[in-house]
Amino acid sequence: MAGGWTRDGAVQDQIDDTVKDAVARARALTPHGVSAEECDDCGAPIPNKRRAALPGVRTCIACQSERDKAVVHSTINRRGSKDSQLR
């Protein structure tokens, strides 16, 4: 069901695009390659179990937790209000 000036299926297209963007971002942020033996941020040794579980890891758990707190999510509003479209 479309509303206003949109075509049928436009809302689902917006949802699909948002999910695709989130998946692409997650894949881009996932480490790959050879894991570091020491944390890039603090220099602490990275445990072998962490390196085996997540190939390409570059940070220890504590530093990665701090990095994860600073993550900013996308602010793209694909469903702008009609008022904003009329301006």
Describe this structure in words.
- With 87 residues, the chain is mostly helical.
- The protein has a domain at 29-69.
- The chain is built from four helices and no strands.
What are the defining features of this structure?
87 residues; mainly alpha; 4 helices; 46% helix; 0% strand
Q: Can you tell me the residue ranges where pLDDT is under 50 for at least 5 consecutive residues? A: none
User: What would you call the shape?
Assistant: elongated
**Mean pLDDT, all residues:** 82
End-to-end gap = 25 Å
Strand content: under 5%
Based on CA atoms alone, the radius of gyration comes out at 20 Å
Number of helices: 4
Major beta sheet summary = none
Instruction: Give the H and E element order.
Output: HHHH
Question: Helicity, in percent?
Answer: 40-55%
User: Would you count the extended β strands for me?
Assistant: 0
Structural class: mainly alpha
